[in-house]
Amino acid sequence: MRASLLQIAVNEDETVGARRERVASLVREQAGSDLVVLPELWPTGAFAYDLFEEYAETLDGPTVTAMAAAAAEASVWLHAGSVVERAPDGTLYNTSVVLGPDGGLRSSYRKIHRFGFDKGEAAMMGGGEEIVTVRLPGTGAGTGTDGTVAGLATCYDLRFPEQFRQLTDAGAELLVIPAGWPARRREHWTLLARARAVENQAYVLACCSAGTHGGVEQAGHSRIIDPWGEVIAEAGEDEQILTADLDLSRVAKTRADFPVLRDRVLGLPDPRPGARDA
């Protein structure tokens, strides 16, 4: 599989409409890739809270429509990052969208862990409740396969390893994580992305935005990490397209050669005094 991460610069001097058109053009240029990934909330910026209400849209709104057309023109699987979704009841969600090579909507994921500690996203948006995987036909390790299973997570989710273990248990071989991670915590971004790869023995595609929005400088440093935790491609701090070829057979090989997942012990006894007798 050839994967391309588009580390988009999200700056306040560019309108949402202009950025949407520019990103659609960049997606169309990735025709040689199998999977293209965009950052979290790139139309507005993950910290531009004042724009969330104004630019909230349904999943057939202007951003998803433009990305669907670009994916179809390039004939690529497109993880279109995330948008501010407005649900029928008016609730806002930070929702990731996966589009097929024909432009069809194949999956969506509402971010489970909202950042802000009772402010910002955590106060303004509803939280998702579902662990989401999506099968990408035509991208498997060998001929005749049904395709790679990708597990979906977003930004702050990266701090919660239990979500990624559930994605692995659901069959994920590839973990796709769009983000709008702050530069001041860049070391956490790069460390946790590698940790999720190592502990789940899966490829990690971690795509962050660049630029500054809402007064928050972005971390950049998007990364493609293999199932052994080795960084095989990494971006810098500015807008950049990061492309690498993934040998998907390495997931099964790593899990077979070093079968740590097999040795998990679930259902440990409750450590509280008297719990066994309750």
From TrEMBL:
<dbReference type="InterPro" id="IPR001110">
    <property type="entry name" value="UPF0012_CS"/>
</dbReference>
<dbReference type="Pfam" id="PF00795">
    <property type="entry name" value="CN_hydrolase"/>
</dbReference>
<comment type="similarity">
    <text>Belongs to the carbon-nitrogen hydrolase superfamily. NIT1/NIT2 family.</text>
</comment>
<protein>
    <submittedName>
        <fullName>Carbon-nitrogen family hydrolase</fullName>
    </submittedName>
</protein>
<dbReference type="GO" id="GO:0016787">
    <property type="term" value="F:hydrolase activity"/>
</dbReference>
<dbReference type="InterPro" id="IPR003010">
    <property type="entry name" value="C-N_Hydrolase"/>
</dbReference>
<feature type="domain" description="CN hydrolase">
    <location>
        <begin position="1"/>
        <end position="248"/>
    </location>
</feature>
<keyword id="KW-0378">Hydrolase</keyword>
<dbReference type="InterPro" id="IPR036526">
    <property type="entry name" value="C-N_Hydrolase_sf"/>
</dbReference>
